[in-house]
Specification:
323 residues, alpha+beta, 2 domains, five-stranded mixed β-barrel, globular, binds zinc ion, hydrolase activity, acting on carbon-nitrogen (but not peptide) bonds, in linear amides, AstE_AspA_cat, metal-binding, zinc, N-alpha-Ac-DABA_deacetylase
């Protein structure tokens, strides 16, 4: 599926990922980088599955430049942008097929542009590692607190206790517990024997320096602790993460079209009934907004970044503190 891809090749190898989906008008080269240095842990770092989640792609491209074979023990595969057709057009999803890549796993080797990339990741890359680190961000639509979560299964060499340790090693302020979805990258990989960590943070349609730094430091801390990198981050990070559950009830959805005004800051701790946001009408004679109140106590983890929201879209969600 990608000529010349040899995950066992010693040292550092960089190939053009877009060779998997040839013939897309104007698409520029993008990269998959494999770094091997003897025996050790095997990790995939993957970003840009949603094309407009750019903090992840910035950090992973830096790491492709910086990390040399002597910095690695085992194997590190870095894919800064697994969805080049979306990313290079400034979009969350690929314009060729309009699919959300993070709902296309395990993919189709002979399918659409997005499905072919998913199949490459699932069928060819996943078997080369024990741990997938899938790096997301808020993108154009949301602002998100820095948080990590993860999944494993009986098929993986990393059990639940080890996964908890990996999540802690990130030094992030929040660890989220959410039900896995098999059609996502991080949900599909444990079913294929590869435990996963998913990262969130940043967003809001613009890169913020501090969010890039948090993401980069977390990855460096986590990969050093896991043993695949010999150097880590300079900052120690949070010594104790806040653990939160996110279930369906934590999501506050728009019941009609309108204009979003958040009434609490991202990361705020709220009680049941607190006013989270108001949705102002975008038409008609009345200016009366609809109030969105917290369905339970928790921390505001994610907020809609755009003015306008459509019926059924997420306004914000909270995480319920774990006892
Ligand atoms: Zn995403």
């Amino acid at each position: 599926m990608l000529d010349g891809f040899n995950p066992d090749a010693p040292g550092k190898t960089i190939l053009d990922l877009t060779a998997i989906t040839p013939g897309i008008d104007g698409l520029q080269e993008d990269v998959i980088c494999t770094i091997n240095n003897g025996e050790g842990p095997r990790v995939i770092l993957c970003g840009g599955i949603h094309g407009d989640e750019y903090e992840a792609q910035i950090v992973l491209r830096q790491l492709v430049n910086e990390i040399q074979p002597q910095d690695v023990r085992g194997r590190l595969i870095i894919i800064p942008t697994i969805n080049p057709s979306a990313s290079q057009r400034g979009q969350r999803i690929s314009p060729e097929d309009g699919q959300n890549m993070n709902r296309t796993f395990p993919g189709k080797a002979e399918g659409s542009v997005t499905e072919r990339m998913s199949a490459f990741l699932h069928d060819v890359v996943f078997p080369q590692a024990d741990l997938l680190v899938d790096v997301h961000a808020g993108g154009g639509d949301y602002n998100v607190v820095p948080m990590v979560f993860g999944f494993t299964s009986d098929k993986c060499s990393i059990d639940n206790a080890a996964l908890e340790g990996i999540l802690d090693s990130w030094g992030y302020p929040y660890i989220e517990y959410v039900e896995g979805i098999a059609s996502t990258s991080a949900g599909a990989s444990p079913l294929a024997g590869v435990a996963s960590v998913e990262i969130e943070g940043g967003g809001g349609g613009a890169v913020r320096t501090e969010e890039v730094a948090i993401m980069r430091d977390g990855i460096l801390r986590g990969l050093k602790a896991y043993g695949v990198l010999t150097k880590g981050a300079e900052s120690p990070g949070n010594s104790t993460a806040i653990r939160v559950d996110v279930r369906k009830d934590n999501n506050h959805m728009a019941e009609g079209d309108g204009i979003v005004e958040h009434r609490v800051p991202l990361g705020a701790e709220v009680a049941t009934g607190d006013l989270l946001a108001v949705i102002h009408p975008a038409h008609g004679r009345t200016g009366t907004p609809v109030e969105i109140r917290a369905k339970g106590p928790g921390i505001v983890l994610r907020q809609r970044a755009r003015f306008f929201i459509r019926k059924g879209e997420l306004i914000c969600n909270t995480g319920t503190l774990r006892a």
